[in-house]
Design goal:
The protein is built from 4 helices and 7 strands. The protein has 143 residues and is of the alpha+beta class. It has one domain: Ribosomal Protein S5, domain 2. The protein has a 7-stranded mixed beta sheet. It is elongated.
């Protein structure tokens, strides 16, 4: 049986006990698959500790599960592309948070209070023509 639900502007699918959600941050897109298991997190077919070498990035991945105390209950498989490693880690956190809300809607208030359900829409500002960068101008010369 396939159940499709609409959460925060992203289509999420539940099939055969696997919840599929999408998380985005900057230019990173993470496809997150959550199923019941032993708490293993795999990112692009690697263990998340190998993919994200710093403890800070590893902590970002675990924040959503630790908030609702389900760190050892679900296996997470992620395919992520685009952007840098910080944007990818935050995209994965958003995808995991959305999946936890689909699994148990009672998780939503705790995750929402920490800001894990809201997509961070900040993007890099584009470079404008006739300028050095997005905001920096060439030096003005009066004469």
């Amino acid at each position: 049986m396939e159940v499709t639900s609409k959460i925060q502007g992203t289509r999420s699918t539940t099939k055969d006990g696997i919840v599929h959600t999408i998380g985005r941050r900057k230019t990173s897109v993470a496809r997150v698959y959550v199923k019941s298991g032993g708490g293993q997190i795999t990112v692009n077919q690697k263990d998340y500790k190998n993919y994200f070498p710093t403890p800070q990035l590893q902590n970002i991945l675990n924040q959503a599960q630790q908030t609702v105390n389900v760190a050892e209950q679900y296996d997470v498989t992620v395919t992520v592309e685009g952007g840098g490693i910080t944007g990818q880690a935050e995209a994965i956190r958003l995808g995991i948070s959305r999946a936890l809300v689909i699994i148990n809607p009672e998780n939503k208030p705790a995750l929402k209070s920490k800001g894990f359900i809201t997509r961070d829409s900040r993007m890099v500002e584009r470079k404008k023509p006739g300028q050095k960068k997005a905001r920096k101008r060439f030096q003005f010369s009066k004469r």
